[in-house]
Design goal:
52% of the residues are buried. Helix 1 packs antiparallel against helix 4. The chain is elongated and about 65 Å long. The protein is α/β, with parallel strands linked by helices and 460 residues long. The strands form two sheets. The protein has an 18-stranded parallel sheet that branches. An eleven-stranded parallel sheet has the order 5-8-11-13-15-17-19-21-23-25-27. The protein has six helices and 29 strands. The N and C termini lie far apart (62 Å).
């Protein structure tokens, strides 16, 4: 019965999310005259026909907000219902009952046994990690599919082994949940990646060392209908949290932290994942607060506090001449402070595909370098990148209600491809000043844009 209720709620969630993802299909008849003038579009080199919905979105923000509100309400309903299902008649599986001690010795085997019991049990099951203890784990994979409606409540601390030899079999992952559907992870506890030893051996810290991958602290892969909430994840070996090939995800109330100089420690990484909402989270690391890469669609980030770090990024996309696609991204409500970038889209030369239908809105920035940036010439390597004609297209991007201060003279930078210029770039109500009451400027190369008088600095 619990499973049927959950599946019904999930179907409801998918329906509402589908409505949300079609925000750019709204058809508004009364487009403002200034935007309905084809001569105006021709003057700025912009074709209005492929992208009419973005002007409708700007003019009719209330309707977009109306679409977003039901999504939040349904997600909240789903979360509450999952709590009720798992708390009334759930079977409790405590890791201590399977030999975990939480005294600094290796508890990996005990966690594996507890997982097997929880996953293979039928009905509602809660796997508990008790408060007041720190459980040391080597790399571990929690694999499904499971027979149960599973909740994991982390009250205590899970800490990673810092012996790099423990990661010989899989040097890319520490904690992995794979093929586990209808999963709720919560509890307010801590996940500590113990990443210092990995950072010290990174080529980005020590240029004399070879560049090698390091583990992602917490990975969810090949899973559907996930709720991850109220957790503290810190000091990852590399990335902190990754959603890989997942569908229907809600992540909220997360605190993700690592030192500003810790290399490649992205906060939340989204790849090949559809229908995901990240909300009400604080992220401060040594790399992107949120990174959204190829195969991701219908991504919503709300009420995000970011800094230190590299900002909120789409990409990088198209490395090594690859195809990449990202679409349907909304960042709505974010505060960034002291970050190396603000909201960024980054693509390599030589790639193909597209990053499209993207909205950045209601964002505050304080002392942020490169507050608004599209970089189609991204090159993260020591040697200069070869100039290539193909590129990942960037189109249909809205920047709305963005204000604050820039740590760099250039507050808006559109460095787009000569062969595939950025198209359908819209700016409205943007006000960015250089820190110290200086006048910031915009650099706009190979871009077709629309901006109104409420935008500063303006493209020359």
């Amino acid at each position: 019965m619990g499973l049927q209720i959950r599946q019904a709620l999930i179907l409801y969630f998918i329906t509402i999310f589908s409505l949300f993802s079609r925000y750019n299909s709204l058809k508004i008849k009364d487009i403002p005259p200034s935007y309905n003038n084809n001569n105006y579009f021709e003057e700025v080199g912009y074709d209005p026909q492929p992208y009419p919905s973005y002007f409708s979105t700007i003019q009719y923000g209330k309707q977009l907000k109306g679409l977003m509100r039901p999504v939040t309400e349904v997600l909240g309903l789903q979360r509450l219902s999952m709590d009720i299902i798992t708390s009334t008649s759930a079977k409790i599986v405590n890791v201590d009952d399977f030999g975990a001690t939480g005294d600094g010795t290796d508890d990996t085997k005990a966690f594996e046994k507890a997982w097997d019991e929880a996953c293979l049990s039928k009905g509602a099951v809660v796997l508990e990690v008790p408060q007041g203890k720190s459980y040391l784990l080597k790399p571990i994979r929690f694999s499904g599919p499971c027979k149960s409606n599973l909740t994991i409540r982390i009250y205590g601390t899970i800490e990673a082994s810092d012996d790099r030899s423990d990661y010989k079999e899989d040097g890319r992952h520490w904690l992995v949940f794979d093929r586990v559907n209808n999963l709720l992870v919560e509890g307010g506890g801590n996940i500590n990646g113990n990443g210092k030893i990995w950072w010290q051996n990174s080529c980005k810290i020590n240029k004399h060392l070879p560049c090698k991958d390091a583990p992602t602290a917490l990975t969810f892969s090949n899973s559907k209908n996930l709720v991850v909430q109220n957790l503290n994840i810190k000091d990852a070996q590399q990335m902190h949290v990754s959603f890989d090939k997942c569908t229907n995800v809600q992540a909220s109330g997360l605190t993700v932290t690592a030192p500003e100089r810790s290399p490649n420690t992205d906060g939340i990484h989204i790849t090949h994942t559809q229908n995901i909402q990240i909300s009400n989270s604080f992220i401060g690391t040594g790399d992107d607060c949120i990174s959204i890469v190829s195969g991701s669609q219908n991504v919503q980030a709300m009420d995000i506090t970011c800094g230190p770090g590299h900002g909120i990024s789409i990409g990088s996309l198209g490395s090594k001449n690859s195809k990449a696609y990202v679409s349907g991204v909304i960042v709505d409500g974010a505060k960034l402070s002291g970050t190396a970038n603000g909201v960024r889209i980054k693509t390599w030369q030589g790639g193909s595909g597209s990053a499209s239908n993207i909205i950045f809105q209601n964002i505050e920035m304080y002392n942020v370098s490169n507050p608004i940036i599209i970089d189609q010439n991204y090159c993260d390597q020591d040697k200069p990148c070869k100039e290539q004609s193909s590129a990942v297209e960037v189109k249909n991007v809205v920047y709305k209600n963005i204000k604050g201060t820039s740590a760099s003279e250039v507050a808006i930078k559109f460095d787009c491809s000569k062969s595939h210029p950025c198209q359908g770039i819209v700016l409205q109500n943007v006000n960015l000043q250089e820190q110290g009451d200086k006048t910031a400027k915009a650099i706009c190369n190979n871009v077709r844009w629309i901006e109104d008088e409420t935008v500063f600095p303006q493209c020359p």
